[in-house]
Amino acid sequence: MLNEHLKTHFQFSTFKSGQAEVIESILAGKDTVAIMPTGGGKSLCFQLPAVINNNLTIVISPLIALMKDQVDSLKARGIKAEFINSSLSYPQIQTIIDQTKNNEIKLLYIAPERLKSSSFFQMFTDVNVGLIAIDEAHCVSSWGHDFRPDYMLIEKFISQLKERPTVAGFTATATPEVRDDIVKHLKLKNPNVFVRGFDRPNLKFLVRNDLKDKEREHESLEYIKNVEGSGIVYALTRKKTEEIAEYFSRNGIRATAYHAGLNRDIRTQVQEDFMENKFKVIVATVAFGMGVNKADVRFVVHLGMPASLENYYQEAGRAGRDGDPADCVLMASRKDFGLQSFFISKSKEEMMEQGKSFEEINNVINIKYRKLDKIREYVDKDDCRRKIILQYFSDPDIGKYDGNCKGCDVCLDYKFTNNYQEMEILKKAALVPRQPDILEPEISDGFENEDLEAELEPDLVVDISNTIKQTVDLYKEGFTAEKIAKIRELGVRTICGHLVRWYAAGGDLDIEEFVTKEEQSMILRAMAEADDYCWLRPIKENLPEEITFDQIKFVIAKIQRIKMR
User: Fold this and answer.
1) Are 106 and 142 in contact (CB under 8 A)?
2) 379 & 481 share domain
3) What is the pLDDT of residue 363?
4) Residue 79: pLDDT band by 50, 70, 90 thresholds?
5) Considering only CA atoms, which of 436, 492, 483 is closest in space to residue 464?
6) Is the pLDDT of residue 447 over 50?
7) Which of 50, 14, 55 is nearest to 168 (CA)?
8) Assessment of whether the complete model's pTM goes beyond 0.85
9) Which of the listed residues 146, 171, 195 is the one where a domain comes to its end?
10) In sequence order, which residues have a C-beta less than 8 Å from that of residue 331 and are 6 or more positions away?
11) How many domains does the chain have?
12) How many CB atoms lie within 10 A of CB 73?
């Protein structure tokens, strides 16, 4: 029955690891804590019960951008959802409140700051709430890496509802201390606690240690030049993000910086451009990623050791959420440990200024150093990286890896090289598995972007991956490319690329939905006039600006299909 609901409402054929048991717990009315990694499918665990149940589900989340992405995705699926946060005007909020009271909404997302208002409390006194889902639940814990005082208001909010709903807390990373705090501060009643989904076989974990700054920057540049798709590079300071983004740009990589010191409009624009693959790389502090739902991130590179394995896995886990292969690369130096120790010392000073007790300060500092030791062990130890991660999070899937995980530098015996001459050999050795693709071909600077030159290889046949099949299934159900992009949390260009590849492989697609007959004729003339029609750029230069690279690719795919008959 659950699988039928999954297919009907979310167009998925199977659950990810651990999702079904969490959903069953919530549907049974049991308070629940779910520790699942980034990309593990936490949101479905409260969205599907919300659709099945009759009463309202309230989702408490600190991430405004993520709220909008998830609500847009739900609406694209025909599910009634709204959000209330500081981005809305008072009349907009009042309209949503009225819809909520009239049972016109299934899921309502709110920011924890809303709970400061007693009038906001009163709005829900007569509403039947079936489920309270707390996203980023580690924020309720002072032991966590992102404690937020407003989360302490959640329990009071729950207690003032006319009937206590089922309460579920979700987080990507939580130590035993944090899990205990989630149960304690939310006053959960005999909750089921699940630690699931930390094993993500599509991710490769690669570590490079003992690098000097210049070596690290050079190796990251060479790596990015030779890897497909777009990704995130994390640096430890704002200044460093800007320096590295400039360094990449000077060396032919489309890159930009992102950090909390930038103007909000600039940050929003950077996020939107990244969603549409206008940049190959975002060089960021950890301020980037929490509110960005981009499923096709092909790599996450850390230029610097994070403060803990929780932080690292949450950030690295933003890679490969579409299920396709992706790399998580950590390039560390001995200086990183000293810098993280400095950050711990600064936090000690801040706690002293806040008037916390000596005992409390010492407990927090000791936990931070234990966490730092674990991430240092991950970097230094010549042992399976995946095994270390699964052990740390007590994931039962560790039993699957008694031998070679075939997904980390230790098990693959992968060696970084200064000039990356071995990259193609390493790809074939399953480091970055990839099928040849005529329609998203090699690019001069390593970036898959339509406005750069791309050589065409018209005689290759495209294999259809699982992520393309998901797009095709939605297309067959009548969804537009724009709607599929919302549902799948991908850029429209990425979705069009999927459909082009499917069409080239013989898929039943009406090309005139994307390129009219007149536009096809224009593209064919431009190909004939181009000095070198084996590249996309010369073709595009002979066309009006409104003709897109995706449309050119559709026409090329049509030619290939004719040649294959």
Assistant:
1) no
2) no
3) 83
4) very high
5) 436
6) no
7) 50
8) no
9) 195
10) 207, 208, 211, 216, 219, 220, 301, 302, 303, 304
11) 3
12) 21
